Amino acid sequence: MSKGDLHIGFGNNGRLNQPVAHAQFVSNVVDYGMNIQQALEAPRFTVPNDSCEIPIESRVKPEVLNELAKRGHHFAVRKEYSTVMGRGQAVLHDFQERR
């Protein structure tokens, strides 16, 4: 992803979770203004293939889980930094610094 002279290379492992994890990373940076470390460390969820329960990390605030549950979502709460969500890496490069 890039904006002007800033370029971010990122990726994650996690097989079927990759598209969801990539979208969450980009949203964390673009929509929520997180730096790349914050975006990688933010709590995550994934979308299962065979269940209506959404795997989500226990680091998500209970009030957020409660509000989403009121709206009809069902969760399988996982431990913090669950391997189900995959792992990620990112690097930011500012081409302006070369000039």
How would you portray this structure in words?
The protein has 99 residues and is an alpha+beta fold. Helices cover 28% and strands 26% of the residues. It is built from three helices and five strands. It has helices at residues 18-30, 36-41, 62-70; strands at residues 2-3, 6-12, 53-57, 74-78, 88-94. It has a three-stranded antiparallel beta sheet with strand order 1-2-5. The chain has a two-stranded parallel ribbon with strand order 3-4. β1 (2-3) and β2 form a beta hairpin. The longest helix has 13 residues, at 18-30. It is elongated. The two termini are 21 Å apart.
Mean pLDDT comes to 87
Spatial strand sequence of the major β-sheet: 1-2-5
Number of strands: 5
Count, helices: 3
Distance between the termini: 21 Å
Strand % is 25-35%
Structural class: alpha+beta
Parts with pLDDT < 50 across at least 5 consecutive residues: none
Overall outline: elongated
Helical proportion, percent range: 25-40%
What integer value in Å does the Rg equal?
15 Å
Major β-sheet profile? 3 strands, antiparallel
